[in-house]
Write a structure and sequence with these properties.
The chain is built from four helices and three strands, in the order αααββαβ. The chain has 188 residues and is mostly helical. A three-stranded mixed sheet has the order 1-2-3, sandwiched between helices. The protein starts with 9 loop residues before the first helix and ends with a strand.
Length: 188
């Protein structure tokens, strides 16, 4: 009798289990979301004083977005893209390390798998928003999203209320956040 041509080892079993866990995490996320996209749910954070399209210009003073007026636009966007990619790579590596560590429970593995799926969705949504905003005619654009905030950096020679409202409209059509949590910065 011939032996089988392939041998199922520990590594193959571990990879199959991790794939199964990721599939379960995607299914749980789908069930929790009610089978619909989370991006299209209304935020419900509007008050009577809020008007759709209201735009508030802010000074760039938060986090890595400081001193935008004294920076060459091409250098800024190139460095920001490198920093953003490095940050995403670090988050992915951390999640992979946690999943592959072997010292976590099944519940922790499911939580980490859900975090991985959410990170992937946020990155995809940031890329889609950047493309849509560039389609308005901006030379370059970067979008930073988290659960409750959106920060958009656009390269433009002047940003007026109408252009800012158009950007805000694109963001609100794709994600469900409060309009006052959208910040738009310009780099000249």
């Amino acid at each position: 009798m011939k032996k089988p041509a392939f041998i199922i080892g520990k590594k193959q079993i571990i990879m199959a289990c991790l794939t199964l866990i990721l599939g379960i995490a995607v299914y749980v996320n789908y069930v929790i979301a009610g089978g619909a996209s989370l991006a299209n749910k209304p935020s419900g954070n509007l008050t009577d004083d809020d008007t759709y399209g209201d735009t508030q210009f802010v000074n760039a003073g938060e986090e890595d977005l400081s001193n935008l007026e004294n920076v060459n636009a091409e250098e800024f966007f190139a460095q920001a893209r490198i920093d953003k990619a490095a940050s995403n790579d670090k988050a992915i590596q951390t999640l992979q390390t946690c999943l592959g560590g072997g010292d976590i429970t099944k519940e922790e593995a499911v939580v980490k798998a859900l975090e991985s799926v959410n990170l992937s969705k946020m990155t995809e949504l940031e890329d889609r928003l950047e493309s849509l905003i560039k389609a308005l005619g901006y030379a370059d654009c970067l979008v930073y999203l988290d659960e409750n905030d959106a920060k958009i950096v656009v390269q433009t020679d002047g940003l007026d209320v109408g252009k800012a409202a158009a950007i805000k409209d694109i963001v609100l059509s794709e994600i469900s956040i409060s309009p006052q949590n959208i910040r738009i910065y310009e780099v000249k």
